[in-house]
Amino acid sequence: MNTHVKKWVDEIxxxxxxxxxxxxxGSEEERARLTEEAVKTGVLMPLNQxxxxxxxxxxxxxxxxxxxEHLTFICSPKEEEAGPTNNWMSxxxxxxxxxxxxxxxxxxxxxYVVPFxxxxxxxxxxxxGVEITDSVYVVINMRIMTRMGxxxxxxxxxxxxxxxxxxxxxxxxxxxxxxxxxPQKNEIWSVGSGYGGNALLxxxxxxxxxxxxxxxxxxxxxxxxxxxGVKTPAGKMHYVTGAFPSACxxxxxxxxxxxxxxxxxxxxTVGDDIAWLHPGDDGRLWAIxxxxxxxxxxxxxxxxxxxxxxxxxxxxxxxTNVALKxxxxxxxxxxxxxxxxxxxxxxxxxWDPKSGDKAAHPNSRFTAPAxxxxxxxxxxxxxxxxxxxxxxxxxxxxxxxxxxxxxxxxQHGTFLGATLASETTAAATGKVGVLRRDSMAMQPFCGYNxxxxxxxxLEVGQKLTKPPGIFxxxxxxxxxxxxxxxxxxxxxxxxxxxxxxRCDGGGKAVKTAIGWVPTADAIDLDGAAIxxxxxxxxxxxxxxxxxxxxxxxxxxxxxxxxxxxGGMWKEHNELAKRVAA
Length: 581
Ligand code: SAT
Ligand code: MN
Description:
Number of domains: 3
Bound molecules: sulfoacetic acid, manganese (II) ion
Structural class: alpha/beta
Largest sheet: 9 strands, mixed
Low-confidence stretches: none
């Protein structure tokens, strides 16, 4: 047994005083035992085991259904290290305010010790965490989302470099809910929530917030990005990453099915949410997916929008806050099947279709093993990761932002990522549909000052002699009736095709004030259900629109004061000049 892990576990047991301590080894026997226990205590409900073997439903507390960003803190010694986009709490205040909430918190409960590995087995990029939790739901989900158990302890050996992840459900009161990150001591404390991003500490807390600070120190990037492989009909393999805010279609894009009118194209999935990016010795940027599962948004997922996800979640999947059908299967808004009589909503109450209430919570989720995905990439487990040809930055924008355009340089691309803004979704509590700045889709997930984060992006770029191309995309422009103009889903491959042509030195484009925009005939529309005229509209760049954007960008960069890198101001000023011209 690793003595550092043992010592920490003893300390936490003394603090939280559980009735029992259970060390998790990740075995099949353990999965069966914990699942049985979860069913017995009502944490999980077995679904129809004939139709959905190994699938269970979990209903969470109705006040605990999404990430709570206002209760999420970076606890660095200085406020400036957290920066203006993070909530900050001093480590001393955390000791005073948050630590006492763990005192005796596990009395009468079981304390689970969950060692986990983020990243492929045997990869020098992988990181070990140990989560201590009193939630069996968390353990069962962590088992899907990470490589859990002995494999992590083997990776750690006798070392002491692991993230200490302390979690307790507490009393689930939002008044006593805190998610605290300590980048300096490589530690996370989460109390008062059992929800995904708040409680599965390997995900946003370790793989993004803590990892971003490790990346800053060690010369790499932890990003809120999907990773997908694209094989062209000529047989050329490309890998693309894409940063999009939560609930903007990363899982769908990662598992894209090429339209029938584009034969010969092949998509494989490496990851759907998080990418760790390292500059390689060959001057290219390499990506691994630190996760082992998908924690995807259920509503809107169907055989039409994402058949690969639908096939992934047929077995061994935990559903959280979806609706339950009388036959013991599940349903959500946007499902292929019509709703049936006698369904229970996400809170377990009889659902009345005429009430206007949603049957499934808009942020209801599935947790499923990535290995079950029919299009999982053979490179998913490659310890070296995959070399990246292109990076996409996307957001939900009803207007202004064209379907796709390309940055001129890495610095310009960093600027395109930095100025990303998106309409908010149900993945976090708060109002939905409000436009907010979300640099690299990392605003809720960057563990340090975002001004310094942008500098770090520029530094990483300097190490790349063959940097990926950087593109902005927007699938979400709407017509005056509020309907999406671009068909999206499989048809997004038409945009990827142009992106990869550009990376290979082709692809027709015009230089505009904001970057390289495809000519309308450069997007392959063969067999697409959209007119060339509409695509022309989607590619329009209106200088007046960008005038307004410039003001907001300036305000944003000013927030970081001296932390905003000169390179961002340079790009901003040049954009201003081009827009004026
Ligand atoms: O934060 S979660 O992991 O629960 C989901 C998300 O917001 O992407
Ligand atoms: Mn996410």
